[in-house]
Each structure stands twice: as structure tokens, then as C-alpha cells.
Design a protein that fits this description.
single chain, 146 residues, alpha+beta, 6-stranded antiparallel beta sheet, 2 helices, globular
């Protein structure tokens, strides 16, 4: 009987520590970033060229950059597919620098994939749902440039 009470107390203490997580932390999302901005044309358009200070309209899809896939596309975080395209005036800092640089030189009707280093994206601050220091991948289609 003397041994029973300490065993019950020890069991209760262990159960309490297990329930609170025992001090373990949740693993963080791995963060990757390309060394430089890379533009790869999928198809070259035949229309007007996107240059500042033109106003451009684009469809886009954005992913977190990862080295785990051949196309570097990790978690998708945004897209205009199925919705309204994005319209922006080039040269006004209306979008992240890497996105604007990725559009410059495209021709209407063209499609391009752009790998953006964190410094030309959301940098060390990040922006929900993009973790700090994350590289980005965008597929961009230029709809108009006026």
C-alpha cells in the first residue's frame, strides 16, 4: 500500500507533462531562395512590349520557391486564375520588385516563369502566408500593355 500512492503520484505527474507537450516546439517551414532573379519565357507574345511607364494587365500564379521539385514550385499562395487579372502601372513600385522586373520585356500574349530571390520579394519580413526570407516562383501571362 505504501508503494501504491507514490506510483499513482508519479503517473499523474508524467501524464500532466505529456499533455502539455513536454516543451517540444513545432518544426518551422523550410525556407529556400534562388541566388538571382531568373526569367524563363514559356511562349513569346507578339503584341506590345511591357516597359515603364505602361500599364499592364497580367494573369499570374505564385508559389513558394523550393529545391524539392524540379520546377521549384512549392506551396501555391496566390493566383488570379479563374478571377480578374491584375492591372499595375510599371515603374510605380505597386508590386514587389522581382514581380515587376519579371514582367519587363514581355510581349502581350507571352507567358513567363520568374524565380524571385527573397530580397526582391518580401525579404526578411515576409508577408502572411509567405515566411520571411522566402524565394518565390510566378507564372505570368501578359494580357495587355498600354
Amino acid at each position: 500500500m505504501k508503494l501504491k500512492l507514490p506510483l499513482i503520484a508519479a503517473f499523474v505527474a508524467i501524464t500532466s507533462l505529456t499533455a502539455c507537450g513536454g516543451g517540444e516546439t513545432t518544426p518551422s517551414v523550410p525556407v529556400f531562395s534562388p541566388a538571382t532573379l531568373v526569367k524563363t519565357d514559356i511562349s513569346i507574345g507578339t503584341g506590345a512590349e511591357a516597359i515603364a511607364p505602361k500599364t499592364v494587365t497580367v494573369h499570374y500564379t505564385g508559389w513558394l520557391y523550393t529545391t524539392a521539385t524540379a520546377d521549384f514550385k512549392g506551396t501555391k499562395f496566390d493566383s488570379s486564375a479563374g478571377g480578374a487579372p491584375l492591372t499595375v502601372k510599371l515603374g510605380t513600385n505597386a508590386v514587389i520588385p522581382g514581380f515587376e522586373t519579371g514582367i519587363i520585356g514581355m510581349k502581350v500574349g507571352g507567358k513567363r516563369t520568374v524565380l524571385i530571390p527573397a530580397a526582391q520579394g518580401y525579404g526578411s519580413a515576409g508577408r502572411n502566408p509567405i515566411p520571411p526570407n522566402s524565394g518565390l516562383v510566378f507564372d505570368i501571362e501578359l494580357v495587355s500593355a498600354i
